[in-house]
Amino acid sequence: MKKDERIDVIYRKLQIEKSLKINDIIKELNISIATLRRDLSAMEKKGLIYKSYGYIRLVEEDMRFEPSYIYRLSINKNLKARIAKKAVELLKNRDSIFLDVGSTALSIVEQLSLNIELNIITNWIPIATKISECKKFHCFLIGGEVRKEELSVGPIDIKRELSLYNINKAFICASGVSLEKGISDYSDIEIKTKQEVIRNAEENILLADSTKFNKTGFLNVCRLEEFNKIIVDDNLDKETISKLEKKGIEVILA
């Protein structure tokens, strides 16, 4: 098991149990104490855990405030990669797609096949930068003011800006997913972009790992019924999947 995979396993277990014994982790992952120390040091530097004698404890996320995108890129990487792989399988040659601000959307770019041509619209500079490395994909970065802490772009006139594009598939990310309240996020500028994209796209697809469910961020974006599909990892419970399907949403498990 690679380092990133081990960190994902530890982090997912912490999200459930909140604290773990060092000896239990060593036994479960079948690794040396030296290897675990290196993994835990990496997690501590990223602000994911607190270390104490014989234990580690989860640093709880406050849903009222936006965690940095650097932090988001570091957690649940394996789950996000699986979700991104399923998203890539939905793409057709010469599709025009929107990729939202989010680490899972960035993972889509990292897994794109060079055998297809795509028009990719985004409001996130890290995605545009990654796409620029490949000549097969045409990238359109929505213009406007840059949020320096997030490297996202908020257009001055979002309706006029998006009216220029015919979007076949919109891949939307969220900080929280609630069956009752829908999806939520932090930035009102990014939320306005999400809402306008959702109104205009032919097909809306939500990318959300199972840790996002039953959480509510600071600002509401839209109801879940706005989505045609939700791609989520197979850790999501069957009851929630059934409720989503009753809303007419296709659930794709990764």
Overall CATH class of the largest domain: Alpha Beta
Query: Biggest sheet, open or closed, and with what strands and sense?
Result: 7 strands, parallel
Task: Please report the distance between the alpha carbons of the first and last residues.
Answer: 19 Å
Which architecture of the largest domain per CATH?
3-Layer(aba) Sandwich
* Beta strand %: 15-25%
Instruction: Report the helical percentage.
Output: 25-40%
**Number of helices, counting only DSSP H or I runs of 4 residues or more:** 10
Q: Averaged pLDDT, please?
A: 88
Number of domains: 2
Q: How many individual β-strands? A: 15
Q: How big is the Rg?
A: 19 Å
Poorly predicted spans: 62-66
Strand line-up across the major sheet: 6-5-4-9-12-14-15
Please tell me what the overall shape is.
globular
The structure class reads: alpha/beta
SSE order, one letter for each helix or strand? HEHHEEHHEHEHEEEHEEEHEEEHE
CATH topology of the largest domain: Rossmann fold
Describe the protein's architecture and organization:
By secondary structure, the chain is an alpha/beta fold. The protein has two domains: 3-58, Winged helix-like DNA-binding domain superfamily/Winged helix DNA-binding domain (Arc Repressor Mutant, subunit A, Orthogonal Bundle); 69-253, Rossmann fold (3-Layer(aba) Sandwich). The protein contains ten helices and 15 strands. It has a seven-stranded parallel beta sheet, sandwiched between helices. Helix 6 (103-111) links the parallel strand 4 and strand 5. Helix 5 (77-89) crosses helix 6. It is globular.
